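Hi everyone, sorry if this is the wrong subforum. Our group has a chain we'd like a structural model of before ordering constructs, and none of us has done structure prediction before. Sequence below.
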Amino acid sequence: MLRPSRFRLAFLALGLLCAAAAPATEKELERTGGPYVPTPQIVVDQMLNLASVGPKDFLVDLGSGDGVIVLTAARQFNARGYGVEIDPVLVKQSNAEAKRLGLDERVAFHVQDVFKADLSKATVITLYLLPAMMINLRAKIFTEARPGTRVVSHDYSFDDWHPDDQLVLDVPEKEKINGVPKATLLLWIVPAKVAGKWQVEVDAGEQYELNLRQSYQNVTGSANLAEGRVAKISQAGLRGNAIEFAVMDGGVRRQFRGTVSGESIQGTVTLSGGRTARWTAKRI
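Answer:
Right subforum, don't worry. Here is the predicted structure as tokens:
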């Protein structure tokens, strides 16, 4: 499989062949994604910058190859983490390099299938995988990674889970790999899970029942108001644990902002005249 710490020649998808490598079978390509080629350090650095990696982060690199992303995160940003790689030779080399650099107490590399990786500790996840693998991993990352986890991919997307941000770099050395002298970096912030019914109470005395629908960071739904009135919510969205939406009540717009914590939400709402009040919600 393609890996975030290097370029993999996706020659099934791109119609390219690596002259230095022997022809690979379809089964081998499905397992590895293509021959191993190191990634320019500028791509590694910008992936970590886009994810705002810092000393409190735990980075999981799915398909870690030579380990350069995890090692760079530890060396430059004092982060912790581990890499998952199916090639035992590369894992051995990565662990040896971590020990040589004195980073082996902060990072490690494991021979493991990316679909079996433990994402529970991750605050940052990095990938450089073929499109089909990205789609197959999408549900795992969305459901298993904690809300607020930053996910950065090199070149390939999660299809209808659109990125929250992206960056295009000029990387001339990529042209001989896939014919394009650029790298596209994509960032997602794993959103909280808010679909369902919520009972909302505002300190000013108002109560609502929210019915929320969710497609990744996009939220739609309605609010049951007083006297049986129903209003659609608008301007709704999620960024990690942060939720925002508006409710029109009797011609007055209420702007809600809050933080999701499991089965509850709390935050502030802007009322008429610019007044603000606290609000809480519990999942029904």
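For your construct planning: Residues 3-25 have pLDDT under 50 and may be disordered. The first strand starts at residue 6 and ends at 8.
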